[in-house]
Design brief:
about 475 residues; disordered C terminus; mainly alpha; single chain
């Protein structure tokens, strides 16, 4: 059947993406008001119809993506970048989808222009006559008074968008989507580079065509995409031996969102191994060089970016603000809350302890993976990807799109590994957790759970033969650059 071919998957996915975009016109994360009437509410009946259409379209996109991946795994060659363009294009003019975060970004950019301290107050400080007032009024409830947890580089970009558009909400949203497209382009470039001279199709399947990325980075314009793009580009440069410039890019990524700092440890591993014999025996000089110099370079970038932005160093104290907001996907949050309610009337102290233990466990996992990468038992890039997945799983604040931090990295170098397949299944499940309106209804968790179980059962029955992610280095980007 033509629909099951690579070409059929391309157009089936494009139809699904178009349905998501059209459904989003009535069921998306619409602004409270906008002057053109393009993204205005159309009444409850059309809202429900739009949500149904968006869910059906999302299911088409996921099905087309999964089938497309099976074809690529079987050796079918296709124009993957053309497929990516077809799946992305329908989302370009859609309203914000699956999240209201872009309104926070615009409001924070306006706050900088209006002279407010973005690290001391939330978007609610903007008055009705201020730039970005419409965006501030459209921010999700608990984020209205939340200071910005983002670095100064992202605030500079948001400020530039607001200044260029005059804060008009539709134009500003589309400006933020241009940044998201730039992030997607960086991801594609880095993934292709990490794949060396071979076929990049499968890596792009998990890292770039992933529906979780399309709906949350392109549709929802989350700045996680830009963090990932800069971080992965920095890692690629480090793999090619240009580790100083790579650390500069990772430093910029950190000034978008701080989790990118994990990449410095694995770049340090690459530096240490190159400085030695490449077999985990670089000696004291190599270890010190790898541990110290990447951090110094990225730290200098962070200081310079903060001084240029003029927003101050308040980002150092706001990194934990998101952790105060309960998200059902955070295991440590849920366990801590449950234990706190079981043993007392106030769950917060117990929850805080469990959250800290989760972060400690994540730190231990990251160090273990870095040590194994230094010893040559796992590829450093793969180690970075698995570390970021572990960090997300044990963090006090987890959103569906956070999975992309590690999934994109793993996809770049080990998409056919067991870890890559599991991340593909989890990605397909998490797209259902959030409604196009940005809310998280109970049925979203039910559908996500069903998809997750079906996907894992499919894997267990041996529908694919995963490679190992351990043992000798399973991909060769680092090996190609050793002297």
């Amino acid at each position: 059947m033509w629909i099951l071919s690579a070409s059929g998957c391309r157009w089936l996915g494009a139809a699904g993406s178009l349905a998501v975009a059209v459904g989003g016109l009535t069921a998306g994360t619409l602004p409270v008001r906008e002057p053109w009437g393009l993204w205005a509410p159309r009444g409850p009946a059309l809202t429900v119809a739009g949500a149904v259409l968006a869910y059906l379209g999302l299911t088409l996109l996921v099905a087309a993506w999964w089938r497309y991946g099976r074809l690529l795994a079987d050796g079918v060659r296709d124009r993957v970048l053309v497929t990516l363009a077809c799946w992305t294009a329908p989302l370009l003019l859609a309203p914000p989808l699956y999240s209201a975060d872009v309104y926070s970004y615009i409001a924070q950019g306006a706050m900088v222009l209006e002279g407010h301290d973005v690290y001391g107050a939330g978007p609610s400080v903007l008055g009705p006559d201020d730039l970005g007032a419409d965006a501030a009024d459209s921010v999700g409830g608990h984020w209205t008074d939340t200071p910005a947890p983002y670095g100064p580089v992202f605030l500079l970009l948001a400020q530039a968008v607001v200044k260029a558009t005059g804060g008009e909400i539709v134009s500003a949203v589309l400006g933020m989507r241009l940044i998201a497209l730039g992030a997607l382009a960086l991801i594609v470039w880095a993934v292709r580079g990490l794949g060396g001279d071979g076929d990049h199709s499968g890596a792009l399947w998990l890292a770039a065509l992933n529906p979780l990325l399309l709906i949350h980075v392109v549709g929802g314009m989350h700045n996680d995409g830009l963090m990932i793009g800069l971080m992965l580009s920095g890692v690629l440069l480090a793999v090619r031996g240009r580790w100083v410039l790579g650390c500069v890019l990772v430093g910029l990524a950190m000034m978008i969102k701080s989790p990118a700092a994990v990449a410095l440890l694995f770049i340090g591993v690459m530096v240490a191994r190159r400085d030695g014999d490449g077999d985990g025996g670089g000696g004291v000089r190599g270890v010190v060089k790898g541990l110290v110099l990447p951090g110094l370079v990225a730290g200098a970038v962070a200081v310079g970016a903060t001084l240029v932005a003029g927003t101050g160093f308040g980002w150092l104290r706001t990194q934990s603000v998101a952790g105060a907001i309960h998200t059902a996907l955070s295991v440590t949050n849920d366990v801590g809350l449950g234990l706190g309610l079981l043993f007392g009337d106030d769950p917060e102290p117990v929850k805080g302890v469990v959250q800290k233990l989760g972060l400690l466990a994540a730190a231990v996992l990251i160090l273990v993976l870095a040590w194994r990468a230094w010893k040559g038992r796992i590829d450093p890039v793969l180690g970075l990807g698995l570390s970021l997945v572990g960090l997300v799983a044990l963090s006090p604040m987890v959103q569906p799109w956070y999975l992309l931090w590690g999934a994109v990295v793993v996809g770049a170098v080990a998409w056919r590994s067991g870890a890559g397949l599991v991340l593909g299944v989890v990605s397909a499940a998490l797209v259902y957790e959030t409604a196009p309106s940005g809310r998280t209804p109970w049925y979203g968790f039910v559908v996500a759970g069903v998809v997750l179980v079906l996907g894992l059962v499919w894997m267990r029955r041996g529908a694919a033969a995963p490679q190992t992610v351990d043992g000798p280095v399973v991909t060769g980007p680092l090996e190609r650059t050793r002297p």
